[in-house]
Amino acid sequence: MKKTSFILSAWAACCLPLVAMADIPPAPNLFRASPAQYDFRIAEVRGDYGQDFQFQYDNFGCLLRQVGLSDDGVEVEQNVYTYDANHYLVQHEECVGLKDDGTPVVDLRQIYTRDAKGYIVGYNRWKRRAQEETDYEMFEDIRGSYTYDEKQRPTHAVYMYYDGEKAEWYEGLVVDLTYTEDGKLESLTKTVDNALFEKEELTYNEQGKIAGLTLTKPGANDVVWMYTYNAAGDITQSGRPGYYFNYTYYEDKTLDKTFIPRKNIVDKSLFGLRNAITWYAAPTENSYVHAIQHEETTGATMVYEPIDQTNVERVMLGDKVEQDALVVEGRWLRIKPSASERGSVLRIFDLSGRCIKMQQVDKALERIDLTTLPSGNYIVKIAQHEAKIVR
Asked: From what superkingdom does this record's organism come (predicted)?
């Protein structure tokens, strides 16, 4: 009896954490043009106030560099992105110019600490001291921490700032986010020393799309950004009097299937919704339907490229891939994990990123029951590898 009790206790200890983990979906990946999710990705922006930008990706679809070019095509600035083993952004560097040795001059470095599911829980910002042109020393000036609700929505952020004269950290900014009953972002409130610094509120139309953004600051008149839609559901104009943006769209490319880099909770809470929920001043969530082709005020024209779908179709299990390492046979998924992958938890995600099934894989050949999954496309992940399957 004691032995049986021990076995049951051990089973519970092993299985319960897996159930709890399954209840938490993985964080959205905002800087990866995954071929499982997108058909196109941003390749160039031409003529943005006269400047061109190029976007470069790695083999997994992660955005590696955003390069700004001079009129004669020389790189004058770049944003460099670094990722963890799960393809989540962990570092962003803003670079301008080159040192004498040819390496980029880093002006700003942002570091993101993530939990096991990929959610940002910590933030550190480093700035270049730049007391002289050749002064490349970096110093840390901001630290952030983040809280999420039971639905993994960010609700609270606290920012600590560094006082160089006193050589100490102090609480400089507290941010709270609220949501509507149907889960849409409703407001973002910033307070400093328990006093209101500013508040942003979003309103939605009958179709659930963002219709307006109101900025309230103590002692100042409210500023309201409005978004006008056409019959196709695309924003034709955004902004406020004297500060409007106007758009045209690609009819053959939809926003949900076209990758553009999106802002994260750090950007939203630190820099405000008006600066961080938009792509060329048009909100990217609960907003337009098609991919933007041109914005009139900035002069920017977007060029997208098709994503190579073969990368996701190819099974990536083990160091040397076998043709039959991962096969769907009727209602079964047959997997032959490598020795290093045995003992890992295999997870199956739908294309929205929601984990819908998980199972520990211990044997050299395993079969996983897919009966409960509707027909469709899914992403299978084990260890640091992933593959697309069709049920």
From this structure: Bacteria
> In the chain, how long is the greatest CA-to-CA distance?
80
Spatial separation of the C-alpha atoms in residues 356 and 350, rounded to whole Å: 7
Is pLDDT at 18 greater than 70 in this prediction? no
Does residue 216 contact residue 199 with C-beta atoms inside 8 Å? yes
Tokens of 388: 């697309």
The residue among 234, 254, 232 whose CA lies nearest residue 246 is: 234
CA distances from 177 to 93, 191, 223, 345 (A): 27, 12, 19, 34
Q: Which two structure tokens, joined as six digits, stand for 229?
A: 């839609």
Whether the model clears a pTM of 0.90, i.e. scores above it, the answer is: no
Residues in the chain: 391
**CATH level 3 topology of 40-306:** Lipocalin (2.40.128)
Looking at every residue in the chain, the average pLDDT score rounds to 87
- The pLDDT tens digits of the residues spanning 111-152 come to 999 999 999 999 999 999 887 888 999 999 999 999 999 999
pLDDT digits (tens, 9 = 90+) for 230-282: 999 999 999 999 999 999 999 999 999 999 999 999 999 999 999 999 999 99
- Is residue 93 over pLDDT 80? yes
Residue with tokens 């990536």: 316
pLDDT at 313 over 50: no
- Neighbouring C-beta atoms of residue 202, cutoff 10 Å: 21
In angstroms, rounded to a whole number, what is the distance separating the alpha carbons of residues 236 and 249? Answer: 9
Structure tokens of 154? 């960010």
C-alpha distances in Å from residue 278, one per residue of 26, 125, 240, 301, 386: 23, 22, 15, 16, 30
The C-alpha atoms of residue 213 and residue 216 are separated, in whole angstroms, by 10
Q: ∠ at Cα 307 (301, 312), nearest 5°? A: 155
Domain boundaries, the chain: 40-306, 311-390
Residue 352: per-residue pLDDT: 66
∠ CA 313-360-30, rounded to 5°: 50
What is the CATH code for 311-390?
2.60.40.3080
Residue 206 and residue 229: Cα distance in Å, rounded?
A: 12
Q: Is 255 exposed, middle or buried (0-12, 13-18, 19+ CB in 10 A)?
A: buried
Q: Give, as one character, the DSSP assignment of residue 237.
A: E
Percent residues over pLDDT 70 in the chain: 89
